[in-house]
Amino acid sequence: MGTEQILGLITGILFGFLLQKGRVLRFEKQVGAMLLKDMTILKFMLSAILVGMLGILFLADAGVFTISHKPMNVGAVVVGGSLFGMGWALMGFCPGTSIGALGEGRWHALFAIAGMVVGAAIYAELYPWLSNTLMTWKDFGKISLPSALGLSHWLVAVILWAITLLMFYFFEKKGL
Predict the structure, then answer these.
(1) Which of 137, 173, 167 is nearest to 46 (CA)?
(2) Taking the CB of residue 19, how many other CB atoms lie within 10 A of it?
(3) What is the dihedral of CA 14, 20, 24, 27, to 10 degrees?
């Protein structure tokens, strides 16, 4: 096993541990998120995004790697996001939480995992057709939020941090 695989395994175990400790694997938290009555999952995801964003920006600015964006394709985002959301709403799990729930011994998570595997297989089979139809709808190319706004990526990061902290304050004030 190489260094990248070991680091990936350690990161995955740590992420699963944090999912479990944050109680975001619980069905009631998933339902609460869907009904906008419990913001635990949103707070968890936003925290991970903000910390990851800082890490990626620091490493990119240090020249460790180059940030490379996928093309922004409205058709693919709308259809893919809709399928993801329907799967999450039906099963009560996203990909990460399904694996975490299975790790906690909730065997019904296997149905969610099987659905993701079947969905990925269907996508792979349909890819030639999708690349000529769905993936041609409103293709904006490789854009980022900072480039679209014409702002420094650090300024965008600060703005997103500020907005998120204000949201966290609001959620806590409302008991969400």
Answers:
(1) 167
(2) 21
(3) 140
